[in-house]
């Protein structure tokens, strides 16, 4: 990968991170904080855009910059869903289901364990 592509990846990653923050805060300020609607909006929106990129046949450096840089910092949920959809599309439905459920439950467990460890300090 060229130095210019790496620099673009870093810039787009920053843009995605700022966009995520502004979206989450903006939605939360309008909807309250009883449900993480801002995060849901970010995750579903990122998945939609990533699906559009994949469906449009975007590949190579452009895919890396947009999917990995911009959307990767905006949400990792979109990449997780794309991986799961790819497994299912290729006929690996059991692997797709394991990826979804293991990520959900192991992710929740990791948060619980992390909170417990963090509480020790």
Describe the structure.
This protein is mainly alpha-helical and about 120 residues long. It has one domain (about 5-120). It has 5 helices and no strands. The chain has helices spanning about 5-30, 35-55, 60-75, 75-90, 95-120. Helix 1 (about 5-30) crosses helix 2 (about 35-55). It starts with a helix and ends with a helix.
How are the secondary structure elements laid out?
Layout: H1 3-31, H2 37-55, H3 60-74, H4 77-89, H5 93-118
Helix pairs in contact: 1-2, 1-3, 2-3, 2-4, 4-5
Sum up the overall morphology in one term: globular
SSE sequence, one letter per element: HHHHH
The total of helices stands at 5
What fraction of residues sit in β-strands? under 5%
What is Rg?
16 Å
Query: Care to count the β-strands?
Result: 0
Report how far apart the termini are: 41 Å
Helical fraction: over 70%
Please, how many domains? Answer: 1
- Mean pLDDT across all amino acids: 91
Largest sheet: none
The secondary structure category is mainly alpha
Query: Segments where pLDDT lies below 50 for 5+ residues?
Result: none
Pick out its properties.
5 helices; 84% helix; 121 residues
């Amino acid at each position: 990968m060229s130095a210019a592509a790496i620099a673009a990846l870093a810039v787009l990653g920053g843009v995605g991170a700022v966009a995520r923050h502004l979206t989450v805060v903006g939605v939360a300020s309008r909807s309250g904080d009883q449900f993480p609607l801002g995060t849901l909006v970010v995750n579903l929106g990122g998945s939609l855009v990533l699906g559009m990129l994949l469906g449009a046949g975007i590949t190579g450096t452009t895919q890396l910059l947009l999917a990995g840089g911009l959307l990767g910092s905006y949400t990792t949920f979109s990449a997780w869903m794309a991986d799961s959809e790819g497994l299912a599309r290729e006929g690996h439905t059991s692997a797709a289901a394991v990826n979804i459920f293991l990520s959900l439950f192991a992710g929740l467990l990791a948060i619980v364990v992390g909170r417990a460890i963090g509480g020790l300090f």
